[in-house]
Amino acid sequence: MMFRPVGDRIEVSIPERERFLIAGLPSLLEGVGEVGDPAFAILNRAAYRGDEGASSEFSRLVEDDTAKARSADRAILADVGRGPTTLTRDEGLGLLRALNEARLVVAARSGVIDDGPGWEDRIPVDPDVAVLAWLGYLEGELLQALSALV
């Protein structure tokens, strides 16, 4: 178990080879920002479909807060990539958001959007699908630990 609830905190102990992968995720996420990047489109969807003006205004109003929140979440992800640590509930939620953001970025950039029947069969032959499955596994483990906190 990589995420273990202990009182009101979560102990994080991820094997070194997997920490190596986690340590690379913050730089992957920092690279999102170009309008032509498919990950940018996924992470910055229009708030009001069909109303470009309202969507632009909404984006303008929340972009600074969103950037600060994503930066804080990515810092938690970087800490977890450095080695065993302990997280508060809020930090655990931040890690969950960063892991989900990473899944979205990998999926968008690799074009993996089909999660219908048989996608698991692609794990051994498609590294992008393997990474998506692994990130999903981490999210599931973290969610279980978060729900068990006192």
| Main sheet properties | 3 strands, antiparallel
The helix/strand class is mainly alpha
Helix content class: 55-70%
Number of helices: 5
Describe what this molecule looks like in 3D:
The chain has five helices and three strands, in the order E-E-H-H-H-E-H-H. The model has no long low-confidence stretch (mean pLDDT 89). The chain has one domain (3-147). With 150 residues, it is mostly helical. It has helices at 16-30, 38-43, 52-82, 89-110, 127-147; strands at residues 3-6, 9-12, 85-87. The chain has a three-stranded antiparallel beta sheet with strand order 1-2-3.
List keywords for this structure.
single chain; 150 residues; mainly alpha; three-stranded antiparallel β-sheet
What does this entry show, briefly?
By secondary structure, the protein is mainly alpha-helical.
Question: Can you lay out the helices and strands and say which pair or pack?
Answer:
Elements: E1 3-6, E2 9-12, H1 16-30, H2 38-43, H3 52-82, E3 85-87, H4 89-110, H5 127-147
Antiparallel strand pairs: 1-2, 2-3
